[in-house]
Amino acid sequence: MAVAERTLNVSRLHVSRLSESDVTALRDSTVLLTGFFFDAVNELHNGVAVEDTWLSEYLPKRYRAYYDEEFGRRFLTCLLSVSARLWNDDVHAPTCIAEQLAFRALLDFAQATLEERGIDPGFGPAWEQAFDDLDVKTLFEEKHAVEPRLEFNKWFHPLDEAAQIHPSIRFEDRVVTRIS
Asked: Domain limits at 74?
């Protein structure tokens, strides 16, 4: 899908078009998941198994062996990027598969929050489709084979040439010196 087409699909779904309860739930999920995922990265650093962190709740189980501290930092960066763009006036679709998974985590958390409060979520399938044009939900279905474009090693690659992935991910393989 072309960049302009992806941006157009998402622009119709800006947070300003949501109900107050949906906006509140999405805002709360942004704040809470950011904290939970920061904690998860620290827990992974301290040797906690990924299954015992918040990351495992929102990522496909079939790839658990790959969810280490470095992955956690990169995924958290995607969550922060998607969250920041979600609240901007100029909304853009996620730029990589990991960002689509991060948005899915935000939306799932917000929907669960609303349902727990006895409120029907108003996001609807349009939101899910706009932010999941690659159908990443199939990654959660253990019985299905993964399409080559959705393989784990491609999660942090740009979806197209114009995609602007966060610099800490885009340039990480170019860093010559690491500070310990």
From this structure: 3-173
